[in-house]
Amino acid sequence: MTLHPKPADLFVDRHNGPDEAAIAQMLRTIGVDSVEQLIDETVPAAIRLKHSLNLPAALTERAFLAKFKEIAGQNKVYKNYIGLGYHDTALPAVIQRNILENPGWYTAYTPYQAEIAQGRLEALINYQTVVMDLTGMEIANASLLDEGTAAAEALHMFHSQTKKKNADKFFVSEQVLPQTIDVLRTRATPLGIELVVGDHRTIDLAMEGLFGAILQYPGADGEVFDYTDFISQAHQSGLFVVVAADLLSLTLLTSPGEMGADACVGNSQRFGVPMGYGGPHAGFFATKDAFKRIIPGRIIGQSVDAAGNKAYRMALQTREQHIRREKATSNICTAQVLLSVLAGMYAVYHGPQRIKQFAVNIHALTQVLAQELASLGIEQLNENYFDTLQLKLESKELRDVLKHEAEGRGVNFRYFGETNVGISLHQNTEAADVAEIVGLFARVFGKENATEALLPTDIELKWPASLVRQSSYLTHPIFNTHHSEHEMLRYMKHLENKDLSLAHSMIPLGSCTMKLNATAEMIPVTWPEIGSLHPFAPRDQAQGYAEIFHDLEKWLCEVTGFAAVSLQPNSGAQGEYAGLLVIRAYHEAHDQGHRNIALIPASAHGTNPASAVMAGMQVVVVKSTEEGNIDVADLKEKAAKYADNLSCLMVTYPSTHGVYEETIIDICQTIHEHGGRVYMDGANMNAQVGLTSPATIGADVCHLNLHKTFCIPHGGGGPGVGPIGVVSDLASFLPGHVVVNADGRKAGAVSAAPWGSASILPISYAYISMMGGEGLKRATEIAILNANYIKARLEEHYPVLYTGANGRCAHEMILDCRQFKKAGIEVEDIAKRLMDYGYHAPTVSFPVAGTLMVEPTESESKEELDRFCEAMISIRAEIREVEEGRADAKDNVLKHAPHTAAAVLIHNWTRPYSREQAVYPAEYTRAAKFWPSVSRIDSAYGDRNLICSCTSIEEYADQEEQLVPTDQGPSY
């Protein structure tokens, strides 16, 4: 017998759902002989790649982890006292294992379907409460991308609200973090806003054209200022004031809200989230209640369900799903949910006493350090400080000697100005660390030092009384209950059990690409070599990261066909915005700064026009044909009409309707002929990789959603990563960074950290490494196969709205549910009923109202696709019962969906369908039932009665679940 040795455990076989036998069956259902035939009938020949992807050979999981351990090992984990908004911290192991490393938390989607996301929503309410309590503000959102972009959102919000005529100046204290100033300048310039950077103690607040100001608390150099008088005077001059604050310091310092601030922004990183070489971290945004209707980002609020029970949901959701286009002040369509959850759980686990003790210990050791350094004759400049000392040495030469000595012993300080040194202590600093720092200075200064620098048992808080916090915080029982590990573990598991994630079933969201986030891809994220680096540490300490960035940029260039990539944008919307800034800068560099017209198809996601407006462009909408494609005649007419001022076209490919438009090359050429550039939205790259590319199609810029196509988990609504690729003549305009001059790029930063969410880039690095070029191509093919299989099974039950020339869809399709309205059935009813079958709904009413957009991805098996199709076919039969009068139009199984356990356990069941039909509508649900924890939520009630923080826990304990009598039906 002849044996044939070959690799037995290929990662691509783990990543793709269907095996060869299943593929053969699916092809028969579709009506083609091979995957190759299907691809030929789906993807236009004119845009097909003529070569295979030139990527390294695929590695097994074991081989990848061994190789990556070597790469990560090049990073040097030093003790970092650099500060500047990033601090060492300790994520409790119980939270790391049960949330950060738990697919039940990291594979869930944005909580648009609130009934099956109550766990995450409660965790985000906790986070919002933490932010509101510590900042002293009246309302907070569920996080923004980072501190720099949160500050920029505040600038935009208050610029839109000022009543002062021709107000286009914004004061920025020179003590604001340098990376924040960099992002502010980037965001202000396209809108014609002038930043006035200076000393808050001397600025003329009556300056003509000034509409607002931002202050840092404590300052970047460590000084703590009382801003009460500044804020009062600013308000008298009609200005809005933003305070960028350190959350941990606010356990001891008077809150910005008590000083009168209009908004407070910052970063919750030091609440247990690793530095990760810059991200991801949850930026926070809190403001006054008066601005609740215009606050950027997501707000989680409390409402009631159909039974009258309390339930959480995304409040004011229309701002999220239907971003204002031509009048946009923000393009935010994501958050940092997973990181917000971590920070919120850190507060739940430690409670106000422990968190305050961390702050006390940090400040005590900072006092000890200041005293010891003073005894060595070293000048310390900060009068009032929390955790940061600013030292002035005698000469630059002496400072260089200190830097050499410190780095030789694995210690990083901040070096700035001519002779200044900054030292920021943190939660993990021990007395021995202080002694080590003092010893370093003693050696450099040639002085004796025998002090052990012990943590004192008592210290005097030497701040002025006005700076000492008197108000309480984190008083809610949730922050004063779960302090033992056992109770904390149970609380997190209790919340996890309320949420549906990829650990339960397919999440078939069109345009969101909820695919496998493989465990092997996730493992390196929590390694200290990845998580413990400060983003502003010397570059020679991050050679492992440098290799990761270099390889990933090279591979993404190969996938896209572009010449250069920036990894900095930390969301898809940030990538859009960064791409448009590149185009804007290119035109300006060629004396074409007047080009400001962005052509955008009518079907585009709302972030497209919002990003264009933020980049200083004017939006001109291009019509769609009845088939859902771009109206080429209308596009050509408008490109010619605006030729002198045409900046760009923003286009999604395949289209938002899930079709490979045959005219795409002609469309791109038309834009180029009229002097414009083409920006491609990369939301649908999962249908391009290995088969075509943005450069092949004719695009000049494209953002890539690494949290979609390249396997970074959605994390319940974030983190996201949105790097951009560009053609060669645009490469010099990619984002730079004021602190770390990455690759010599001169443009302004779009995110606070130089490489954005650096610590999760290993996930995409792992995916590409283990798939290889052929594996990536195969994934795209299977994604298209899976989509067309669902289409073939469902099209006789639900009309498929758009298809390509040969009747095929791309990687997703739109199911038309509008005809059911005649029977009183809304698309929302189908979405809610799917929960009873154990599924998250597809994308609802986008890009066409009354439809469902389905994307199965390549990671789902034929068995799972069949279960989903069976659920959809069964729901169609339930709709038919209503259409034919066999079920009441208002009192039926769809209108009451989803069904909770409490709803069906009622003694007097009077509904016209059985309990069994309600909760076990398919045989598979008996073996694996996911129970929604609340009934259908009343969205309008939640918006009318906006409650965005934790409410009394006693109200829950004292009230049994209410059940709605059958004859009343759910309250809409």
Describe this protein's structure:
It is a single chain. Helices cover 36% and strands 11% of the residues. The chain is of the alpha/beta class. Among the domains are: 565-759, Aspartate Aminotransferase, domain 2 (3-Layer(aba) Sandwich); 772-925, Aspartate Aminotransferase, domain 1, CATH 3.90.1150.10. The protein starts with 10 loop residues before the first helix and ends in a 15-residue tail after the last helix. Mean pLDDT is 94; it is low at 318-322 and 953-972.
Q: How many E strands?
A: 25
- Uncertain stretches: 318-322, 953-972
CATH class of the domain at 565-759: Alpha Beta
User: Mind telling me the C-alpha Rg?
Assistant: 28 Å
Mean pLDDT across every amino acid position: 94
Strand residue content: 5-15%
Domain Glycine cleavage system P-protein N-terminal: 13-440, 472-740
Family: Belongs to the GcvP family.
Protein name: Glycine dehydrogenase (decarboxylating)
Pfam families: GcvP2_C, GDC-P
Q: Could you outline the blueprint of secondary structure elements for this entry?
A:
Elements: H1 11-15, H2 20-30, H3 35-42, H4 61-72, E1 79-80, H5 93-100, H6 103-106, H7 118-135, E2 139-140, H8 147-161, E3 169-173, H9 178-188, E4 194-198, E5 210-217, H10 228-236, E6 240-246, H11 256-259, E7 263-267, E8 283-287, E9 299-304, E10 310-315, H12 318-321, H13 337-375, E11 379-380, E12 388-392, H14 396-408, E13 411-412, E14 414-416, E15 420-424, H15 431-445, H16 485-496, H17 519-522, H18 528-531, H19 543-560, E16 564-566, H20 572-589, E17 597-601, H21 607-614, E18 618-622, H22 632-641, E19 646-652, H23 664-673, E20 677-681, H24 694-697, E21 701-703, E22 724-726, H25 761-794, E23 813-816, H26 827-836, E24 843-844, E25 851-854, H27 862-883, H28 901-904, H29 915-919, H30 924-927, H31 939-944, H32 953-957
